[in-house]
């Protein structure tokens, strides 16, 4: 009899994504159906073909689950997206204000002498602190927003991330066009990358953390 270890297994990442995005009541049935079809397809067409098929089905399932989420709870998801965007817009400049306030407090209105390398180091740590603060705030907001939508944590955070990335991209393009109009052609790429890619990734990470915590709590055996 063939051992369980030798049986062909679907891609772990794809299986994890399906389980993560599926509602609690449907997670086992969706994963079970995909695994059953994968197990039948692998001996006939080969493991490589079966894995590619599984990934295609995973993408289709994720798209279907996102669409279903909007149909089942449209107002809560839209509310989470709008609320998350407003909250992000409100706190996005907070790290810069806090760091500048701390530096002003430490300086006590006295301007010490700094060499050029020291000035460069201060600028580096100032910018790094601002970017790190924005990433951490994005993670926290992802957690907060995902806790408002039961069973659709990843849907709302993914849509919020996409919405934020698109708007940031449009805003940055407009800013660069305006700057070039006034003769400025040099831009710092790191803040742009953090705004368009880093913050959305952290928002989804926050939703993933909340979703995993809820799944762990739901699947924990009751002590009664």
Structural class: mainly alpha
Terminal residue distance: 38 Å
Oligomer: single chain
Number of domains: 2
Find the count of extended strands (DSSP E, 2+ residues). Answer: 0
Net shape: elongated
Low-confidence stretches: none
Largest sheet: none
Topology as a string of helices (H) and strands (E): HHHHHHHH
Strand content: under 5%
Number of helices: 8
Helix residue percentage: over 70%
Mean pLDDT: 79
- C-alpha Rg (nearest Å): 23 Å
The gist of it:
Helices cover 79% and strands 0% of the residues. It has 224 residues and is mainly α. The mean pLDDT is 79.
Question: Key features?
Answer:
2 domains; mainly alpha; 0% strand; 224 residues
Task: Report on this structure.
By secondary structure, this protein is mainly α. The protein has two domains: 4-71; 73-219, no CATH class. It is 79% helix and 0% strand. The radius of gyration is 23 Å and the shape is elongated. The chain starts with 11 loop residues before the first helix and ends in a 5-residue tail after the last helix.
Write the layout of secondary structure elements.
Layout: H1 12-21, H2 27-45, H3 47-72, H4 74-91, H5 94-107, H6 116-146, H7 153-181, H8 189-219
């Amino acid at each position: 009899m063939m051992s369980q270890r030798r049986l062909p297994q679907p891609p772990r990442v794809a299986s994890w994504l399906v389980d993560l995005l599926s509602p609690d009541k449907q997670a086992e049935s969706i994963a079970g159906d995909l695994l059953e079809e994968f197990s039948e397809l692998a001996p006939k067409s080969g493991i490589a073909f079966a894995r590619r098929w599984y990934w295609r089905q995973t993408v289709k399932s994720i798209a279907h689950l996102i669409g279903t989420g909007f149909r089942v709870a449209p107002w809560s998801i839209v509310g989470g997206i709008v609320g998350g965007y407003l909250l992000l817009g409100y706190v996005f400049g907070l790290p810069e204000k806090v760091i500048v306030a701390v530096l002003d407090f430490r300086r006590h209105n006295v301007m010490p002498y700094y060499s050029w390398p020291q000035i460069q180091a201060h600028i580096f740590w100032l910018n790094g602190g601002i970017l790190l603060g924005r990433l951490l705030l994005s993670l926290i907001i992802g957690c907060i927003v995902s806790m408002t939508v039961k069973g659709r944590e990843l849907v709302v955070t993914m849509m919020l991330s996409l919405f934020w990335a698109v708007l940031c991209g449009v805003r940055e393009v407009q800013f660069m066009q305006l700057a070039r109009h006034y003769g400025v052609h040099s831009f710092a790429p790191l803040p742009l990358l953090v705004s368009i890619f880093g913050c959305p990734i952290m928002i989804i990470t926050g939703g993933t953390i909340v979703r995993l915590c809820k799944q762990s709590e739901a699947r924990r055996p009751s002590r009664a």
